[in-house]
User: Which sequence fits this backbone?
């Protein structure tokens, strides 16, 4: 690692002030992406601003909303009785992220801010029509994700939480995992709720998470695995690497979609 300063503010306002005052400063949430990047010397921040003491963790159901604080860990989401009751697929998805160590440290806010094209949370947030809350505003999921590692967040803007609209009638997630990293080679989240019928795909697209609108239309007419069985996803724009070709990932979208719908019931 390179040398850097370390700050641990006790309020969101102080954290924002530190980040705004130094363009080379980086926020530290769970650190599951940032720390490896620092070790590899692929990033050289002047200061790490630790968000651990900002009081941004917690899960609460209030009225027609499930609210999850930005610093809530994947393990907390996976184990939450509130999440299991309100959106079971969200708890299942969180339980499939990485391993025990990653789930115990990684956070929902950190995952969304990083917007890795193979991450799980973007698929859930987009499928469920969630709203990303920041220290400045509320951002609809449809507007938040803007491409690989790119979001609508402005410099110095911090995610404070995520709100999921309720009730969710059906939801399911299926993921084909890389056996080493456990990132999604292809993950498909399906949902039927306040945001309508949605099918979102992570891990497959070069631009990150996306909606498969042909499958959404098919499920809108008939909610069943058979409804999406013959809907093809074009290979153009799919990721291709040593783990799988673009054509293979396009095929997996259909396979995972069928499994996700079957799980949703």
Assistant:
């Amino acid at each position: 690692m390179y040398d850097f300063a370390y700050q641990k503010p006790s309020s969101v306002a102080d954290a924002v002030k530190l980040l705004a005052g130094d363009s080379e400063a980086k926020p530290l949430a769970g650190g599951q992406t940032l720390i490896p990047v620092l070790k590899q010397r692929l990033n050289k921040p002047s200061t790490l601003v630790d968000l651990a003491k900002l009081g941004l963790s917690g899960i609460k159901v209030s009225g027609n909303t499930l609210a999850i604080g930005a610093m809530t860990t994947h393990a907390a989401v996976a184990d939450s009785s509130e999440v299991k009751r309100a959106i079971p697929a969200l708890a299942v998805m969180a339980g499939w992220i990485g391993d025990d160590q990653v789930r115990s440290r990684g956070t929902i806010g950190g995952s969304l801010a990083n917007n890795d094209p193979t991450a799980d949370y973007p698929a859930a947030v987009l499928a469920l029509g969630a709203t990303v809350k920041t220290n400045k505003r509320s951002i609809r999921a449809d507007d938040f994700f803007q491409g690989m590692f790119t979001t609508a967040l402005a410099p110095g803007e911090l995610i404070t939480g995520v709100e999921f609209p309720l009730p969710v009638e059906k939801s399911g997630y299926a993921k084909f995992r890389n056996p080493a990293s456990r990132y999604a080679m292809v993950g498909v989240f399906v949902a039927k709720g306040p945001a309508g019928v949605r099918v979102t795909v992570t891990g497959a697209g070069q631009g990150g998470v996306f909606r498969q609108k042909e499958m959404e239309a098919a499920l809108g007419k008939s909610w069943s695995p058979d409804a999406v069985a013959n809907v093809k996803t074009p290979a153009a724009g799919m990721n291709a690497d040593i783990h799988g070709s673009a054509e293979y990932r396009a095929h997996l979208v259909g396979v995972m979609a069928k499994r996700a719908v079957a799980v949703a019931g």
User: Anything to note?
Assistant: The first strand starts at residue 5 and ends at 7.
